[in-house]
Amino acid sequence: xxxxxxxxxxxxxxxxxxxxxxxxxxxxxxxxxxxxxxxxxxxxxxxxxxxxxxxxxxxxxxxxxxxxxxxxxxxxxxxxxxxxxxxxxxxxxxxxxxxxxxxxxxxxxxxxxxxxxxxxxxxxxxxxxxxxxxxxxxxxxxxxxxxxxxxxxxxxxxxxxxxxxxxxxxxxxxxxxxxxxxxxxxxxxxxxxxxxxxxxxxxxxxxxxxxxxxxxxxxxxxxxxxxxxxxxxxxxxxxxxxxxxxxxxxxxxxxxxxxxxxxxxxxxxxxxxxxxxxxxxxxxxxxxxxxxxxxxxxxxxxxxxxxxxxxxxxxxxxxxxxxxxxxxxxxxxxxxxxxxxxxxxxxxxxxxx
Amino acid sequence: xxxxxxxxxxxxxxxxxxxxxxxxxxxxxxxxxxxxxxxxxxxxxxxxxxxxxxxxxxxxxxxxxxxxxxxxxxxxxxxxxxxxxxxxxxxxxxxxxxxxxxxxxxxxxxxxxxxxxxxxxxxxxxxxxxxxxxxxxxxxxxxxxxxxxxxxxxxxxxxxxxxxxxxxxxxxxxxxxxxxxxxxxxxxxxxxxxxxxxxxxxxxxxxxxxxxxxxxxxxxxxxxxxxxxxxxxxxxxxxxxxxxxxxxxxxxxxxxxxxxxxxxxxxxxxxxxxxxxxxxxxxxxxxxxxxxxxxxxxxxxxxxxxxxxxxxxxxxxxxxxxxxxxxxxxxxxxxxxxxxxxxxxxxxxxxxxxxxxxxxxxxxxxxxxxxxxxxxxxxxxxxxxxxxxxxxxxxxxxxxxxxxxxxxxxxxxxxxxxxxxxxxxxxxxxxxxxxxxxxxxxxxxxxxxxxxxxxxxxxxxxxxxxxxxxxxxxxxxxxxxxxxxxxxxxxxxxxxxxxxxxxxxxxxxxxxxxxxxxxxxxxxxxxxxxx
Lengths: 353, 531
Description:
The complex is a heterodimer of chains A (353) and B (531). In chain A, helix 6 (106-141) crosses helix 10 (212-249). Chain A is mainly α and 353 residues long. Chain A has helices at 2-6, 8-48, 53-58, 64-73, 80-92, 106-141, 146-160, 163-177, 202-208, 212-249, 252-259, 264-275, 277-292, 296-301, 307-316, 320-348.
């Protein structure tokens, strides 16, 4: 009996293990392809642009013997495929090269700047989700009425106003005129280098160090750029939530639930919202990914030392190692976010298991 | 639900207001400056060639000769006494080192450090090495030509004939910075004379020491109380990287920085009436010009070059969108300095230009491309020129590009016309004459690519005059020679000289004693104080 009862179990387990292995293989394959594509495209783009990376190092007035020497030192005299191969081989060892501009290993630059971007993006996305989802739900529930119109206007402004303009206006109003928040930068200059970096997140490190003044100064600096970026996310998330909700609210199961006498709040917040979680997570993950990519203009207006500005500066200085390193990081981040949202689908939606 | 949202919004706003930071002014003993510092790529004086790097270098390293903050017009001894001995042939200079000087490390500054500093510039052969390479120094001969006779006596011999005033002038440039030999060599790696380490650190004896440099973030300097001219008035200087001029303006208005360095003309105008902020104007030695490639069949005709000079509304631009920030200056050496040539004979005269074009065989004009930068004010200047050119039938196509693309194009002589600017490397007319009025090898593979080469301008006669001027030891004669050269280049060269800018810096009204000179590396913080 035992043998008969137990017999199907290994086959189920086996097939499940096989499925997981297949998924894992597909995932690894797609990851490898993504990274290969990323490195090839960015590497080739960097080489075909009519810019001269040697001039980025030696300046415009150097004599030709200096130019020729640096050209060789940078390996630019080798064939393109050989340059690419060397680059990939170094990448495989975790070596992103040294930035021509900062003179630091690119990996160290990124480790220093990425936390600043994550800090800003995380607060922004929290604002976007906490305000955007309820607004979208409300707009759908009150379709055609004033909450819907308000949301449309809020969304329109968020979509159509250039972010640097919003940043400058925000600074003029909340920093310059009202004095509610601090100005550009992550922290006042006189607080620089007081807190020992542990996590790289200034808000957390200042708390660890017990430096309350620095913590509140950092909060006061981050709140405005995070609110502006959060507002842009909010506009996107609210609009998408509204559209998903409208799709659900016209379904028959909603009518059934209403007929069964469930309260409108329960129908909307539990049943309809519960059913849009999967696409909503994709929207939020994409929005977060966009923010993590580094909002270049916001980081410039607010003198925020994150990866977006690092990428922009590197491009301007023809700093190929830094550009490639940042691109790989951003690619890796998108892949990770995709993985995480897949994992969340798996947890939230039983049908995906 | 809307009640809930309203409440959340209200709480948010109240919370925001509650965060109001203590709007402390900058500390009394610290100068906080907002500046775009993304051009700084090295702190090694053997390599520095950028604006911010030059400015930091001039405060962190002392130099052999100086234009001191107290009088920017006079060359005096820096780490050496002002008086020096010159051999009869005018080639060997002997200097006495000022006694009692110390590096930031505490090491004494000796003649050996001075010799080492010049030798490493030549041996490393990085971008600015050519400045003193002109003396005939090479990695092979420099050890014999530049030496410490004893700890207090430094001697250098040049193998080329150079006017002594020019030699001294070159020793005021960034490559004349004195590096602490002991510290540099303690960080030597594979025979680099400490270069890799000095890119990010310093070993100087200047009025400030560089405590931190985080590229694209901040530079923090601390006062050197042992400085030979006395301790600076402030304890710290903090330069914050603020790339966006609008943000710089807000910071200075609010008092979160003491100085804003990169404000645009509009923002400067917007500060008028704010009693907490003053705007100071400093001369600049830059030259804005148009270059006409002589490989182009139209531009190689002298009448066309003349016509173009009469087709620019110099005064119109200076009176409108360049107001307050530029003056008309039509020769290659800027106004206000030794041997500057201040004649501005050209103005907008379309009829004259049309006649010259007809004489050249182009009565209906021609099509031509002008490459320029995407930055202000180049785009505005280019558009203005486009309009005036059109009045004489020249159809000007403007191509804007980032400097990363513009410089390679110009260096490869692939342009027709370029609108760009030039800064001298040191304050002697030879610095500009060497590039605008010399072209020793017009082949496609020259050793150097001066501006005359970039425009394929072959000028054996003018070059001979430039080479003679550099050797002339009689200052009055030398001055006259440069005036003649400038006149010739102005009349017939492939350059249309347009403007000389001024630099405007906004300071909080309590900031006093900030000194800014005409070139990027003549900026001194040591006399700056705050009331």
